[in-house]
Specification:
2 copies of one chain form a homodimer. By secondary structure, chain A is an alpha+beta fold. The first copy, chain A, has 7 helices and 10 strands. Chain A starts with 8 loop residues before the first helix and ends with a strand. Strand 3 of chain A pairs antiparallel with strand 3 of chain B. Chains A, B: InterPro entries: Bact_HTH_transcr_reg, Chorismate_lyase_/UTRA_dom_sf, Tscrpt_reg_HTH_GntR, UTRA, WH-like_DNA-bd_sf, WH_DNA-bd_sf.
């Protein structure tokens, strides 16, 4: 088989992608060495490297330092997942944003929260319950814990002018996060706060974020009935 | 201010990350040019470039070709989001996997499905309803449409030995996907298939995937009560 000369990394990428999607190279198979591909395409080895690196980042190839490069069996793609400012999300829909702090306390958290926040048993955390509204209607109910040792400035905030969500996004750059998506059947508290019938199925996002210095915040967001969260690969 | 010499891209990255997280450089601010940073750190400009590229990919920096590099205002992180083989997910939990095709038909789809699959009105699609089980208990109910013009081999499959989910992951390399997360209150069909009381809150994933050649499949996955989907930044 002869291949027309390919001089750009984009050209190499396109050809390699074609071989993967048309199953010339099948999932789990080793692909030829970079040097052999460079010879076949009549290009520099660095060009092949650049093309393969991007395909590996996109999840189509599986590269192991010593073992070589295989076609990925289960392509893992990276999707954009952001921590949005809820106010901006609502304003972008052309709706009027509001928020109301329902409670602000400094209790010893339940053991399960202390474990998730990695604080010693008996240590107090800031506990905030907030309702975000869109055109006056409940949008998302936020049940949040914050470690004031990680974020001392939080103690001076009453969150009347800015929501805890927006304040944290603006003030505290997180370095990592843990996301869990699930659903619940609205019980007494959520049903009341979100003004929906008990038993309504609600989408739930649990999120814990940290910096190198430790856990910052752990939040449960319970969205209004019918909410849909969208992302793309 | 003097900075100790930094010779590796990892070192530059660490220092730049420190300046962002400690707000030496604040969100939205332009950071110095690569050449200036290279001079400050006493390293090659390529070293700075490598470090900044990775921080931009991680969402901490916002790079524009002509405008320069700013500290990101809303860090957008990329999370791993994969299309799993449900059998493997269940087996990994140490449970026995099973699947059952509940129906297999070739109707004209509802207009909303035809639009999502980008097929002309009146065109027939393969419609499969499948239940996946873990240790015999309902795990996820899959309601799927497949375009046989994009995947002709699907017409020869009865999916008794392999689920449509696993067959598609193995046989058809997708190139893009659209994900929507939500919740529903179990109605008659889901409640019956998943053996849960009507009104139970259930987590729902709607997913449409395509190749360069067009839409392949659109599926709604309705998970058993209590299911949690986890990912990490």
């Amino acid at each position: 088989m002869t291949t027309p000369e390919i001089n750009t990394w984009q050209g190499v990428q396109e050809e390699v992608r074609r071989r993967i999607t048309q199953r010339v190279w099948r999932p789990g198979e080793f692909i030829p060495h970079e040097a052999d591909l460079a010879a076949e395409f009549g290009c520099a080895r660095a060009t092949v490297n650049r093309a393969l690196r991007e395909l590996a980042e996109a999840g189509l190839l599986d590269r192991r330092r010593r073992a070589g490069t295989r076609v990925a069996v289960n392509p893992v793609r990276k999707a954009q997942l952001e921590i949005p400012v809820i106010r901006e999300e609502i304003v972008a829909k052309g709706q009027a944003y509001g928020h109301r702090v329902l409670s602000r306390e400094m209790p010893v958290p339940p053991a399960e929260v202390a474990a998730r926040m990695q604080v010693a048993p008996g240590r107090k955390l800031l506990h905030l319950r907030t309702l975000h509204t869109a055109d006056g209607a409940p949008y998302v109910y936020e049940n949040r814990w914050i470690n004031p040792e990680a974020v001392p400035a939080v103690l001076a905030e009453d969150f009347s002018a800015i929501s805890p969500n927006e304040w944290l996004v603006r003030e505290v750059p997180f370095e990592g996060g843990d996301f869990t998506f699930s659903a619940l059947s609205a019980g007494g508290a959520e049903a009341e706060v979100l003004s929906c019938p008990a038993g309504t199925g609600l989408f739930v996002l649990d999120r814990t974020t940290w910096t190198g210095a430790g856990m910052i915040t752990s939040v449960r967001l319970v969205f209004h009935p019918g909410y849909r969260m969208h992302t793309r690969l």
